[in-house]
Structure formats: structure tokens, C-alpha cells
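Worked Example 4.2. Consider the chain below.
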Amino acid sequence: MQNQWPSIATRIRAIGVLAALTLTALACGSGNSEPNVSAALYPSVGAPSWVVPGVGLPAEVTLQDSNNNLDVVRHEGRVFLAFRTSETHFAGPSTVLWVVSSVDELTWRYEGHFALGTDLREPRFLSWQGSLWLYFAVLGTNPAKFEPQGSRVAKYQAPGQWQGPDKVFDSTFIPWRVHVIDDKPLMVGYSGGGNIYDANGAELITVKLLTTDDGTTWRPWVDGTDGSVLVSGGSETDIAVLADGGLVAVVRNEAGDSDGFGAKVCRAPAGQWDQWECAADPKKYDSPQLFTQGGKVWLIGRRSLANEGHYDLKDPGESHNETSTKYQLQWWSSPKRCALWRVDPVALRVTWVADLPSKGDTCFATALPVPGQADTWRIYNYTSPLEGEDINWLQGQLGQTLIYRLDVSFHNSPRTP
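Applying the procedure from the previous section yields the following C-alpha cells:
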């Protein structure tokens, strides 16, 4: 079955049709980046340092306007950065995934690139037992369609040299986040993503937890299962491990299901990571990244400034497709931020804490702990240019986007700027 997004032209027309919504969001939505003191810890958000474009990039790297989907990892004393560059946020044949690395995160060395004449997204690194793998999703070339075409894996050999890329996972599986837990790799991903924009929304999506012994062949994390942990409208998912050995997860529920639309916040007990209990959330935290600091669980995810941040407007149409289209249009036509949130794994609730520097098309972040600084995380993220008037998400998707890094430090009391 063909999975059709509303066309780019329809999206552009929606800007005019929903201009009033955008203006209301700008007037009423909060762009405030002051921390929410209810977070218990006080985050201090540093200033961004621009990486892409940046003076430290190697001469081999050629950029296009849209620089977004990214991942970073520390491996053998270097920070590796993979990112997507293309004409726009949307699928196209000119897409390239670049890989660079650095010792000081200022001057970068060329490590390779991947271009298959089609769209490439969701780069994810696994650094494990002295080896480095890069996974990424292959999609189509039509900007009006979401067309998963399988995933690829490449193994790092030497500067500029990779083995692969080779096919990996089943044909519909999208790798989303990679963790190493007690020296055991964990892949969080989902199958059935091509149905997110299906006209009838009949087929649900399956979130899976997988592991590997060699970086290329993956099996269920929980023995005796097929790896499935959630079958719903949820797709992009990340997890964090709790002190008691359980997990908490945040799931983007853009496709919608019997719980509505938005997100799901889930938990599973220690030793039973295939047994998820979830609560629905009307907000949608696109591109979720979870990490723990100070005994708390933190989330980086996209925030809408319209409708109190809600994706689910509790205003269903006559069909699933009509409701989905309505919610998509309001999401595209409202301004966005990339935000830091706190996740309560008991109440299964997410609370806004602070915004990162961001606007327009933004938020596909990766957080790395900073060596020697136990209270600090380094965030790599992308955004539309920060100067000028605010713009909505669709306007940002059709324009230039840039990649920066910044530090977020956590303190037990407020810090004076």
C-alpha cells in the first residue's frame, strides 16, 4: 500500500490557511529558556558553538542547506559526528551522510561519507569493545512520501575507510537509539514506520529492543521473545535505565491509536524489559533522547509553542485520517523549540524544564557526558538560524539548518548568569 504524506504544496498552503494559528502561538506560546525550578536540579544551558557549517570542518565535506539528523559518540579518544546534509529537510536524491571526528571538538578530520542516490537518515553509532559501527536508515527520493527501504551498517576500519555499508535488520526496521548497558549493546528501533502517514491508519507500529554479539547480527534483547515491547501508534523511542534496574521510555505517538495522539511514557520492571506499562501524553516529543543525571531522568525532545504544546487537540475528525491530517497541519504551522524535560518514571509524566537555543526546524539531539565533569552533558543539536523573526516548523524545514554543540550543567542551586 502506498503511504502518502500531504504534498509539499499542501504543506506550504497550510501556512497561509493556518497563519492565525501561527501568530497566536507566537504571541501566547512560551519561548522562555529560564529553567523551571520544579526540576529539583538547576540546569545551566551554555552558549552554542557552531560545528556545521564551521571553520573546523575538513575540506572534503561539502554542505547543502539542510544539515540535520545527527549522532555523536566517543570512540578511542576521539568524538565521531555523523550528520545528514541535503537540499531540504525532506527526502531527496542529493542526500549525503558525512562522518568526521575530532580530539578537541574544534578541528575535525574527514572519516568518510555515504551517498546512495536516495534519502538517508537516522545515523546511529555503536562503540563497543574497541570497534565502531554506524547504522542508518534508507528512504526514498520523493519529498511527499515516507518510504522506508531498510537499514545499512558500516564498520569503521581506519580514517576514511569503512567496511560496508551492508543491509541489516528487516526491511521496515528503523534504528532509533543505541546504548551499551553493562557491556551489552542495546538497539531501540521500530518496524512499520511506513504506516505513520497511512490514509487509514489501520496497521500499528512495533517498537523493539535488540542486542548483538558482533555488531551486525541482531537478536531480541529479552530471550524467548521476538524483541517486541510495544505495538501501538508509537515510533521514535528512547529508554533510560533506572537505579532499580527497571527502565523508563518516551515514545513518539504521531500515528495515533486507541490512546489518541502525542506520546507515551512507559516503564518496565527490572528483569522484565518486555513488559511495558504506558501512560498517554497529549504532547509530542519528537526525536526523544533520554539520559540520567543526579538520580533524575531527563529528556531532550521537540516542543511546540502552540496549543499549550499539545499535539492531540482532543478534536477528532470523522476518520482517523481526517484527525491525523488536522493534527499534522497544526504541528507544521506552529513554531518549535528543542527543549530539556524531566521524566517522572513513577507518575509517567513529563515536565518542561528549559529550552535550548533553537527555532524553526530543530531538535534531533544527542547528549554525551563530559569526561572529568560529572555534572555536565555536551549536547549536539540542529536548528534553523537563530537570528531574525520566529518561523514555524514547515518554514524551517524548507530553509537552512545548522548544527551546534553546547554544554548543559546541573547544579543543586540556581547559578547567577
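The chain has one domain: 8-411. Residues 1-35 have pLDDT under 50 and may be disordered. Compare this with Example 4.1 before moving on.
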